[in-house]
Amino acid sequence: MKILLTADPELPVPPQLYGGIERIVDLLIKGLRAHGYTVGLIAHPESTVDVDAFFPWIGRRSQDKFDALQNTFLLWSAVQKFQPDLIHSFSRILYLLPLLGSRLPKIMSYQRNPSFYTTSWGNRLAKGSLVFTGCSEHICQIGRTAGGIWHPIHNCVELEKYTFQPTVADDAPLVFLSRIERIKGAHTAIAAARQAGRRLLIAGNQVNTEEGNRYWQEEIAPHLGNAGIEYVGPVNDIQKNELLGQAAAMIVPIEWDEPFGIVFAEALACGTPVIACPRGALPEIVRQGVDGFLVNNLTEAVDAIKQLPNLNRNHCRQRVEKKFSAEVVVNQYEQLYQNLINRPILAPV
C-alpha cells in the first residue's frame, strides 16, 4: 500500500527541538515503513526522515494565501507522480481542495482545534471520501459539531527514547517542561513548588512576543535563583530524557484546553507522574491518583506534591506502553487505512 503523508510547512520532520505534529509524522512514517508500506511525504525541505518519495513544500507559511495556493498545487502534483492509495494530511485541509471530490481515500488529522467552517465544507465536498482523526476525544468532540466521521487516535512516543526510572531521590526536583507562557502555567508551578518546599527546574522556550516577554520578566525571572527555582533553557531529546527521569513529578498546570501535549506521555514513559489540570485531553492521559494528579487550584497542586510518594512509577510507564506507545498508535492508523482502502467511498454524512 502506498501512503502519502503531509506535515505543516513550517518545521522539518523530525523537528530539531519542539514540534508535536512533526514528531508524530516522523514516528508514523518509521512504523509504516517497518510494516512494509511505501510512504511518500510532503513537508519542510529540511526534513530528514527516510521515505520512499519526498516532495518539499514551496510555501513555508500555513497562513499565507499565496503560499497556500502554491502548496495546494504541489500536493495535487505529488499525487499525480506518487499515485498513492491513500492521502493522510497533518497539514491544511485547504491543500486538499482539488482532490476532495475524487474517489481517493483521504484522512485529515487534527492536532489542534478544528475549524468548524473548513471542516464542514471539506466534509461536504469530499462526499464520503474523507474521514477525520483527532489526537484526543476532546478534539473529536469539537470536530463532530461540523459533521463527518471522527476517530480519536492519541499521540505517542518512542519508548526506547525514554529510560524508565523506577525510583528517584527523596529530594528529587519537580520539573516544568513546556513553552514559557501563561497558558502553560509556569507561574502556578513556581508558586506550588515554593509552598511545598520543593526544588523546581523550568525547561522550555521563552515566547518572544510583547506578552511573552512581559510574562517572563514579571512572573518568572524574579523567582529564578531563589528557593530552588532554576531555569535550564530549551532541551533536546537526550536532555529531556535525563531531566524527566530525575524528577519527582512533571508539573504543568495548564490554563487552556490542551489538545494532547506529547510531553505528558514523555514524562510518564520515564515513570514520572504528572501534575496538571483537568482540561482538554488531560483526563484522557492521566488517571487521577495513579499516574499523577489533576488539580483545579494552587491548594490542590500543593497537596498533590505532598502525595507523590504514594504513587507507583511503574504504573506511569505501563500507561504509556498500553496507550501511548508508537507501536500502539501506528497500529491504530494502519487499521484505519485498511478499513478505508477496503471501503474507499463511505456514505456521505
Could you explain how this protein is built, in words?
The chain has 349 residues and is α/β, with parallel strands linked by helices. It has 2 domains: 2-156 and 326-342, Glycogen Phosphorylase B (Rossmann fold, 3-Layer(aba) Sandwich); 159-323, 3-Layer(aba) Sandwich (Rossmann fold). Helix content is 38%, strand content 15%. The protein contains 12 helices and 13 strands. Strands 3-2-1-4-5-6-7 form a 7-stranded parallel β-sheet, sandwiched between helices. Strand 9 (200-203), helix 6 and strand 10 form a beta-alpha-beta unit. Helix 5 (186-196) crosses helix 10 (298-307) and helix 8 (262-269) crosses helix 11. The protein is elongated. It starts with a strand and ends in a 7-residue tail after the last helix.
Q: What percentage of amino acids are in beta strands?
A: 15-25%
Order of helices and strands: EHEEHEEHEHEEHEHEHEHEHEHHH
Strand order of the largest sheet: 3-2-1-4-5-6-7
Name of the CATH class of the largest domain: Alpha Beta
Number of helices: 12
Biggest sheet, in brief? 7 strands, parallel
> Domains counted in the coordinates: how many?
2
Beta-strand segment tally: 13
Rg (C-alpha, Å): 21 Å
